[in-house]
Amino acid sequence: MTQEYFRPRTVQEALSLLQEKPGQGRVIAGGTDLLVEQAKPSRKSPRLVDLGWIPGMKDIREEGGFLVFGACVTHSQAEQSPLVRRHARALAEGCGKVGSRQI
User: Fold this and answer.
1) Burial classification of residue 78, based on how many CB atoms lie within 10 Å of its CB (0-12 exposed, 13-18 middle, 19 or more buried)
2) The domain 4-53 is classified under which CATH number: 3.40.1440.10, 3.40.50.2000, 3.30.43.10, 3.40.50.360?
3) Which end of the chain is more exposed for a tag (fewer CB within 10 A), N or C?
4) What is the 3-state secondary structure (H, E, C) of 10-75?
C-alpha cells in the first residue's frame, strides 16, 4: 500500500487533509506508536498527517494561571521546561520516568 505523508503548517490545513479522504488519514505527533502499529500490514494508514510542523504544537506556555501544552510536546520537553519545573514539579519529574528519552 502506498502511503502519503503530509506536513501541514496550520490546523486548518491538517483538517482539510484529513477531510479529503475520510477514514484514510492518521494524525501523528511524533509517530512512536505508529511505528509499532505499522508493522502490521492490515493496520497501515494510507495518509499520515504530521502535526509537528504547525506552530505552537511543540510549545509549553502559561496562560491564565494554567500551563498549556501543545499536542506535540514530548516528555523530555516537559521534564526540562522551566515553567513545568516551577509550577508542576511532580509532573516534570514524572515525565522523566516514562517512555524512552526521545519521547
Assistant:
1) buried
2) 3.30.43.10
3) N
4) CHHHHHHHHHHCCCCEEEECCCHHHHHHHCCHHHCCCEEEEHHHCCCCCCEEEECCEEEECCCCCH
